[in-house]
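#lab-general

N.A. 3:47 PM
ok so I finally got the sequence cleaned up, no stray characters, all 462 residues accounted for. can someone with queue access submit it? mine expired

B.Y. 3:52 PM
send it over

N.A. 3:53 PM
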Amino acid sequence: MSPTTLLFILLALSTCGYYAGRRRAFAVGGGSAGIKNLHSRPIYYGSLTALWCGIPALLLFGFWLAFESTLITHLVVVDLPETMRDLPAAELNLKVNKIQNLVSGNIIAGAVEPQIQVAADHYRNLKTTSNAALAVVAISMAILGLVIVRAKITPTLRARNRVEQVIKYILIVCSTIAIFTTVGIVLSVLFESIRFFQKVPVAEFLFGLKWSPQTAIRADQVGSSGAFGAVPVFTGTLLISAIAMCVAVPTGLMSAIYLSEYANKKFRAVAKPLIEILAGIPTVVYGFFAALTIAPFIRDTGGLLGLGVSSESALAAGLVMGIMIIPFVSSLSDDFINAVPQALRDGSYSLGATQSETIKQVILPAALPGIVGGILLAVSRAIGETMIVVMAAGLAANLTLNPLETVTTVTVQIVTLLVGDQEFDSAKTLAAFALGLLLFVVTLLLNVIALHVVRKYREQYE
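B.Y. 4:20 PM
back already:
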């Protein structure tokens, strides 16, 4: 039995457990009229049965699959001929990969050795046995949990308390996983960044004015020693993001004000979904639009005005990126403006304020925390964009504030540095992690500033 089939069977058993527990609750309570005799509603008795039927079996299912491959590989390696087991670790890993490829049905280059074929057959047999054992144990555990919990259902059983306790533990586990995942990401980036700073001084990285991370791949190869000054890269990132925000923030905020305060319901019902469609367009489509339409238009217009405009410019990327993130500002701002209590509007009107004065002096200050949150989300989206910059702004790390020239961003350089045949422990590759760490710190500072603004105005207007 395949793991996917087993998973569906376990989910079906949990569903059956829910209905079995619910029916048992009605039975011990004396039917629908006797529900008042039960401590909890029948839905909780069913949920408790389903949880104890599914959770232990699913935990076993997960742990089994997590360690199954390692254990089977170890057993197969132990049964290999002694001459093959004594091979160096790298060669032995190649043999194991060939065995696993044979088992999965992948094409193997060259003739297959008889020992490898025998080992692959052994691996396949162990896999079949493991799947069968997992199915028997998991299904038995699920059925046992269903039977035990169903038998313990009585009118005095505190099913609701137990279900809520289990759900609380599930939420704690999910929160812990999220926290440890974040910590793991930060530590992994930090560890690789420390390795980079052992090769390149921190001061050179933070304050260097030239970015050219070209290094020799081999010791006998003539190549540049590299220049790892991050100032041009972050200047390009901030320049494109600033252009994008100059487009997105006024347009998004004004559209939100109009839709929430001036537009009628019919127009709002049509206009808001159309604006939000912009958020669903793939970024590569925006990149094509920027490269094929906006960039030539800016170049031709600049030529008519006597300005030298690069074929790829920060202005083209920033304008299209601003269009892309308009829905982030507009939708969130609209939601928070609508969340402002009507009593504040009525109070302002009763004091003689006009609608525009009410919007400027009452509604916008009251909705400012949410608006700042939407703008922060838009800034993060702009800083993290890659495809539009690659197609419309280029890859050259020029230290300039001229929006008509070619620039690059941090995310584009991270992608560029991790592509190719460069050694993973070279300064060129490790520079991607240093850029990621610095970008994380900058984003964290933006979050702190935004939280400070939100807290200040929330205390004032709530």
